[in-house]
């Protein structure tokens, strides 16, 4: 009987404990100051971590910096400082920006931390003793910025397939990890854990382009530079970047190779979510799980490869001169406006775009008008008509029920979106609440009620409903715009609502008094003035007119005209936007790639003769123009259900035809 009681008592205590949630970002490389695209990731992770806390989870949120490698050694030499001095400076700058963006991380790890370095040495030695690491030599093409070796066949136009920069021949003694030893086990894990790699398109890319064709052994040490963690038993080698960097996710929470791991590690591992950029998903979903298998540790529950935040003219890079920094944006718009923008403008799978013009538009419409004006009008009317006292007189009309039902549904919608990591959709749901409150003002017309002596109780009820709705909306906003939540609730003289309390309407204390000095949450900005300031910050480099004219004169091709067709002939063709979700080389063919193309709700297989111009990996994620009503045909024995359109220059080089603006898969080209 006593044993039965103790069992149930233990079960009861476990139920009372908070669920644990461990989230990490990729650690930022300390080669230079992070731009807004890099900063987006830590803001996204912060929004997820904050919402999990609102849901009642015991959250551990880790971020930090990756500080070893040849690139750092070279940059430090150029700057005339030691590598440690260089990374101390850059890591401090990264941490400053993470703090500026009000991110609520629990740990900021550095790979130069002594405890991390000691564990990496032990991990390397353990893997070597187990036979998973062996000594050999590497010969291939090396990309210094990416710190990666590639075979000739992996290069794109002779350049690095990841960053597009030139590669140089390199040969050196190295230790290698036997990736193939664990490949089948990883394939089985991915197949039996469908949520492990998200979004789905990233999983297809990893399986089709890397795992199924067969993994090569991975170089895990270097001898051509010294700035790294030395291999204990062979000190001329330093541990190569990925084995060093990826292990931060376990060393940061107290993993010990000798079996003396901390309570924190035992509590939080395996991680619930590794949040990383889509460009490094291969390292996190292939190399990292295999390293963990070698250490006999459970795999993280999910790896999410988020898309990129692009400048209006493409991916941000210092060489292009199109970099935007978070602290610059904060100077113009404020922290929460920048947080709102990067979270709201990033789709779940596709790249988002940031421009100064779009930032101003969002600030003026969504933040100043939809939210700021709503709060200001509500407080001002409460002061004007009732001396700031907000009282529920319960004089209701059917429009009130419609408002209440809408508002009470929003927290459920937000939770559903956040559980699926659809953060942009979640913040849109919150703003739908504020838009509904604005509509309620138009429906009830408080200014008209104020003119009628007999409608004073109805007017009081309307204003109460508005204040209550804003309180719920402001509390929901906390994960995304925490300081704005505080500012709203202070002005309303209200407490933050928990998610559990958001299934009730009417918790705002009747008779409470709002502030008599409402503040402007977001001031509207003049686009012309903003762009003039930006021009001073980043003067545009104009190309000489002569060069432009010469370029235009050369950049034309005349081709032999085909017979004219009628409009009816043209109407028979159907063109649509397709999104390539997977792609692989056609075996025994020098020209063909086989792509899985999402068109609307369907996925079609299309074979294209473009292998000489695009790698299979490069194709994945692209939006392309497709002829969708061609009769299916077989190419090299493979069924092709359409045609991907390309342009060809005089030298036979091909370029995919892609939409200029973001378009959904299936959009008609007309």
From TrEMBL:
Zn(2+) binds at residues 143, 146, 160, 163. GO terms for molecular function: methionine-tRNA ligase activity. Is required not only for elongation of protein synthesis but also for the initiation of all mRNA translation through initiator tRNA(fMet) aminoacylation. Homodimer. Belongs to the class-I aminoacyl-tRNA synthetase family. MetG type 2A subfamily. HAMAP family: Met_tRNA_synth_type2. This is Methionine--tRNA ligase. It comes from Blautia aquisgranensis. The lineage of its organism: Bacteria, Bacillati, Bacillota, Clostridia, Lachnospirales.
């Amino acid at each position: 009987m006593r044993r039965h009681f103790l069992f149930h008592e233990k079960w009861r205590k476990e139920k009372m404990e908070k669920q644990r949630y461990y989230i990490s970002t990729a650690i930022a490389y300390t080669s230079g100051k992070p731009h807004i695209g890099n900063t987006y990731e830590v803001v996204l992770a912060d929004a997820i971590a904050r919402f999990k806390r609102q849901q009642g989870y015991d959250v551990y949120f880790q971020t930090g910096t990756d500080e070893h490698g040849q690139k750092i050694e070279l940059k430090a030499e150029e700057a005339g400082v030691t590598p440690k001095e260089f990374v101390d400076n850059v890591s401090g700058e990264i941490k400053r920006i993470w703090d500026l963006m009000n991110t609520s991380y629990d740990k900021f790890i550095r790979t130069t931390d002594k405890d991390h370095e000691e564990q990496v040495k032990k991990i390397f030695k353990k893997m070597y003793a187990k036979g998973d690491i062996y000594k050999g030599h590497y010969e291939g093409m090396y990309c210094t910025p990416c710190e990666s070796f590639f075979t000739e066949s992996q290069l794109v136009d002779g350049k690095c397939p990841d960053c597009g920069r030139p590669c140089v021949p390199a040969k050196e003694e190295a230790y290698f990890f036997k990736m193939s030893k664990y490949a089948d086990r990883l394939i089985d894990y991915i197949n039996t854990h469908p949520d492990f790699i998200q979004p789905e398109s990233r999983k297809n890319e990893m399986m089709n382009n890397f795992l199924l064709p067969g993994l090569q052994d991975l170089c895990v040490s270097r001898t051509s530079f010294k700035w790294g963690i030395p291999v204990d038993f062979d000190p001329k080698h330093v541990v190569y970047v990925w084995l060093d960097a990826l292990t931060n996710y376990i060393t940061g929470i107290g993993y010990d190779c000798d079996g003396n791991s901390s309570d924190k590690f035992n509590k939080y591992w395996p991680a619930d979510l590794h949040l990383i950029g889509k460009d490094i998903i291969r390292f996190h979903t292939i190399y990292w799980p295999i390293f963990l298998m070698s250490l006999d540790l459970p795999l993280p529950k999910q790896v999410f490869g988020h898309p990129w935040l692009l400048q209006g003219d493409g991916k941000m890079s210092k060489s292009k001169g199109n970099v935007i920094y978070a602290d610059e944006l904060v100077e113009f718009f404020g922290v929460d406006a920048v947080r709102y923008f990067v979270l709201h403008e990033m789709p779940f799978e596709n790249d988002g775009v940031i421009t100064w013009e779009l930032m101003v538009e969002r600030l003026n419409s969504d933040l100043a008008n939809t939210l700021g004006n709503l709060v200001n009008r509500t407080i001002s009317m409460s002061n004007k008509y009732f001396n700031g006292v907000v009282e529920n007189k319960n004089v209701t009309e059917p429009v009130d029920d419609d408002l209440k039902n809408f508002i009470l549904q929003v927290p459920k919608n937000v939770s559903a979106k956040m559980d699926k990591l659809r953060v942009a959709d979640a913040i849109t749901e919150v703003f739908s609440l504020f838009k509904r409150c604005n509509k309620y003002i138009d429906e009830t017309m408080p200014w008209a009620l104020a003119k009628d002596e007999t409608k004073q109780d109805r007017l009081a009820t309307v204003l109460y409903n508005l204040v209550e709705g804003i309180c719920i909306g402001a509390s929901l906003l906390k994960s995304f715009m925490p300081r704005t939540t505080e500012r709203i609730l202070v002005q309303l003289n209200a407490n933050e609502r928990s998610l559990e309390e958001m299934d009730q309407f009417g918790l705002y204390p009747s008779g409470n008094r709002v502030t008599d000095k409402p503040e402007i949450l977001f001031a509207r900005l003049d686009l012309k003035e903003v762009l003039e300031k930006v021009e001073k910050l980043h003067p545009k480099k104009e190309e000489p007119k002569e060069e432009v004219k010469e370029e235009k004169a050369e950049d034309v091709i005349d081709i032999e005209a085909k017979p004219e067709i009628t409009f009816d002939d043209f109407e028979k063709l159907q063109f649509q936007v397709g999104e390539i979700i997977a792609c692989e080389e056609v075996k025994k063919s020098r020209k063909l790639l086989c792509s899985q193309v999402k068109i609307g709700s369907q996925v079609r297989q299309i074979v294209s003769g473009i292998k000489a111009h695009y790698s299979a990996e490069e194709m994945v994620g692209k939006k392309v123009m497709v002829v969708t009503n061609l009769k299916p045909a077989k190419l090299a024995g493979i069924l092709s259900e359409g045609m991907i359109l390309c342009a060809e220059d005089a030298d036979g080089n091909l370029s995919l035809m892609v939409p200029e603006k973001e378009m959904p898969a299936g959009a008609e080209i007309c």
